[in-house]
From TrEMBL:
<dbReference type="InterPro" id="IPR011620">
    <property type="entry name" value="Sig_transdc_His_kinase_LytS_TM"/>
</dbReference>
<protein>
    <recommendedName>
        <fullName>histidine kinase</fullName>
        <ecNumber>2.7.13.3</ecNumber>
    </recommendedName>
</protein>
<dbReference type="InterPro" id="IPR036890">
    <property type="entry name" value="HATPase_C_sf"/>
</dbReference>
<keyword id="KW-0418">Kinase</keyword>
<dbReference type="InterPro" id="IPR004358">
    <property type="entry name" value="Sig_transdc_His_kin-like_C"/>
</dbReference>
<dbReference type="GO" id="GO:0005524">
    <property type="term" value="F:ATP binding"/>
</dbReference>
<dbReference type="GO" id="GO:0005886">
    <property type="term" value="C:plasma membrane"/>
</dbReference>
<feature type="transmembrane region" description="Helical">
    <location>
        <begin position="97"/>
        <end position="115"/>
    </location>
</feature>
<keyword id="KW-0808">Transferase</keyword>
<feature type="transmembrane region" description="Helical">
    <location>
        <begin position="34"/>
        <end position="52"/>
    </location>
</feature>
<keyword id="KW-0067">ATP-binding</keyword>
<dbReference type="InterPro" id="IPR003661">
    <property type="entry name" value="HisK_dim/P_dom"/>
</dbReference>
<feature type="domain" description="Histidine kinase">
    <location>
        <begin position="212"/>
        <end position="416"/>
    </location>
</feature>
<dbReference type="InterPro" id="IPR036097">
    <property type="entry name" value="HisK_dim/P_sf"/>
</dbReference>
<feature type="transmembrane region" description="Helical">
    <location>
        <begin position="127"/>
        <end position="152"/>
    </location>
</feature>
<keyword id="KW-0597">Phosphoprotein</keyword>
<keyword id="KW-0472">Membrane</keyword>
Amino acid sequence: MIIEKLLLHVLIILAPVLIQTSLLENHRLGKSPVFIGVLHGIAAFMCLIFAYESFGLYWDFRYIPLVLSMLYGGRKAGVIVLVFILTARVINGGDAIIFGFVSAFLAGTLPFLISNRFWTFPPKKRVTFAVLLGFWPALVMLGILLSFAFIAGVPVSGNKEMGIYVLIFGGIQVLGVGVAAQLNEWMIEKRLLREEILKSEKLNTLGELAASIAHEVRNPLTVVKGFLQLMKKQVTGTHDEYLKIVLSELGRAEEIINDYLNFAKPEFEKIEKINVKEVLSDVTVLLNAYALKEGVYLEADLKEDGFLLTDRNKLKQAFVNIIKNAIEATPPQGNVSVNLEVTHTQAIITVEDTGKGMTKDQISRIGTLFFTTKVQGTGLGTSVSLRIIEAMGGHIHYSSIVNKGTVVTIDLPLNGDKVAKFDSNFPNTYMNNPNA
């Protein structure tokens, strides 16, 4: 009989998760700590109402919603569930009501204290963490059971039925916590995947629009620039200075348009076997003068060779953008270091600066068109770099601390005989992270 009751409780505690997943996944209400607390509170309330009574105690899973709400909804949600539990316990009454109150507060204490650390773990470890934390209420209830049995004079030693109840209770409770935690993680993963898909669709649309506009604008700009260059040969004095400024700005506009086109369709024109070490060495030498001008010390640790088949100019463009961003984010007297590590299968490039750093929200938006942390800029350079690295089968990971600096890690596969080609349908997944 106890098994049937406890399995019913498992279904009850899964109901809030299923409601959030199926009905309120896209609604703001589904993310509200108050609403999450009320949902799990009702589940805990129902567990107590349909509890199995034996040995003067109520056998139920009221604390699983408490643990889940603390972990996935926050402390506010957990406190709301605790209020529901205490209310239901008062309604049930009985001789052990004081023990029920003590048990509820003890069961909620540990999840309350460590709930903030829960989101520092990756998804798989969060499920394991939730399961391990599910043991805590079981231990609390076991302690309360032994205390009540001792005070009420219920024989514990040699009581096989009570021992079986404890084993069944603990086993099904751990199962319930594990299933509920896994459902929550699937819900989170599904939401993140949807956000990535929407982000990808927007980027593809913007890319097509950018390519169309760029093609239309670049032609008249080229004509205007050509005529101005002819005029410059015939003009002297103040007007010559004006023409220099105009030509400079036209050149800048041309660069932006080319970035748009590269973002829309980065094509690898000349595929050749290149040494990543040589490309990085060329880039650091090229940018060293710029770093000195900005008062930044640029150093490179490039000891190993790593070969891959790709477009040298595109890879160089990606490295220039990333390292130049690091220099521009670093204040005078700061440092930017470029390191290369080569394994059997990949080249790992690390660009570390001592600049202003970025918040988690800013990191999550890296690669989004028009997003930049610079006063002047379009954000296209970073977007193009990410597209190029991805087209080569590589990945970029950003980690940053505000006012401390940023570390950019680039993983490039040493693909040997495989030629890296751009695929227009390649997914725009720039970060490997997020809670972001």
